[in-house]
């Protein structure tokens, strides 16, 4: 099956054009997809930027074994306070996993998607992974199933995966060149042997590409994840993006390398740095010329539960789910009602947006410079988080072409809500550093204390749009800035836009 | 002739299904090898399967107590950095 090529926001914006893809928000990218695919992704938080404000996902950690080693992964790691791929608190057997999924689905009806993403590789544990899927097909047929894999064992498992209605697969592809691969993958396990270096990387790459082609041929939606490793594959990822798009991948997610020394990974211990926010955005923008880019990934744990960016795993530990008695037939009814209500809300938002596109025409006549704004949200697509409670900020770019979502930046909550903030001051420093480049921070409330330092750093705090839809608020603030004469296009920006 | 899994094992299950002699079994606090069953894969595979997929350096020993995957051999991390 051929998937259509998506228009992309960056290149369209650069041309100053005004296709659906470049106006309004990034979720308009979905407008270019056929209905069948839009239906598949509209409630999938990891595939649709819009959906991730409303729908939740969970991973069950049934797959501890891995068939390759990556230099950004430490297989010894297990810490409940860490949020990143490959980290889990307890490995579950398939029966426990199904029990957990049902408990979560009944408690968090917005949970639409169950993925198996490790902590090793889903397809290096085929028995455990497929047992879980088989039982879920029988017991909870309203849950979408996904797999995330390094791709080595993908070709041999495509047939089996399709049996369980798995219609979303993520392959982590960091390179298409074995020389680059040799710097990322020290070994793979293949045909009963450990194969090191370039030779191993070449086999891995071949299997990934073959698996991608097979999935696309079967009509399965494929997302490609790539870890951006400065100096190793950063220049190479544009080529990766082109190739996977040509083969029919539907979304490309370039994620920053995480390489803290204390994680004990090869990269962490050898001083390999991750990209800066600016470097990441630049690469995402340049890949966007070729590919639909995902920018809302939170690089979650292999046992994460909840909306992206939140983790409610602690509510569903084995001993807690043991005590829950769930009538899934009743839960499924309730879930269907909740999903219908969310879909209705989204539909009416889409309609409102269509009307609004006309009203912002005026804004577009004048070429104004783009502005980055940070937003504090707990979900629902509205500004509903206090500045001091936000553990992350979503970053939006407003320009004369409309609003687009750029990514998210993690921070330490400035204040956990008490009167005394402990090291509040240094946490504020972290936030100000993370928000570099932003000129406005929108939140439901912002205290007196952080106000001054934020302003001094050139970031205008704004609590006037509490509970408003994010994109409306960003646009409104942008319009205020325009009226106040703060948006005169810089000469170079004007040239770019023209 | 038998290998041994020691406490460095992280219980990842990778070795267990590969063992041609079904000598590896899940146990607390970590997987173990039944020394009466282990053949070190002689006659089945060129290379011992458990030691070929195990991601943890030093977790599997041969009968002389020597690490089949010594420090640095799998991750490429120089042992002096590991110690630090």
Please characterize this protein's 3D structure.
The complex is a heterodimer of chains A (498) and B (84). Chain A is 37% helix and 16% strand. Chain A is α/β, with parallel strands linked by helices and 498 residues long. Chain A has 2 domains: 9-322, Aldolase class I (TIM Barrel, Alpha-Beta Barrel), CATH 3.20.20.70; 365-497, Nucleotidyltransferase, domain 5. Chain A has a 7-stranded mixed β-sheet with strand order 9-8-5-4-3-1-10. In chain A, strands 13-12-11-14-15 form a 5-stranded mixed β-sheet. In chain A, strands 2-6-7 form a 3-stranded antiparallel β-sheet, covered by helices on one side. Chain A is globular, with a radius of gyration of 22 Å. Residues 1-28, 417-421 and 491-498 of chain A have low confidence and may be disordered. Chain B is largely without helices or strands and 84 residues long. Chain B has one domain (1-84): 2-Layer Sandwich (Alpha-Beta Plaits). Chain B contains 2 helices and 4 strands. Chain B has helices at residues 49-53, 79-83; strands spanning 4-5, 24-25, 32-33, 60-61. Chain B is globular. The relative contact order of chain B is 0.24.
Supply the key terms.
heterodimer; A: 498 residues; alpha/beta; TIM Barrel; Nucleotidyltransferase, domain 5; 2 domains; seven-stranded mixed β-sheet; five-stranded mixed β-sheet; 17 helices; 15 strands; 16% strand; globular; disordered C terminus; B: 84 residues; little secondary structure; Alpha-Beta Plaits; two-stranded antiparallel sheet; 2 helices; 12% helix
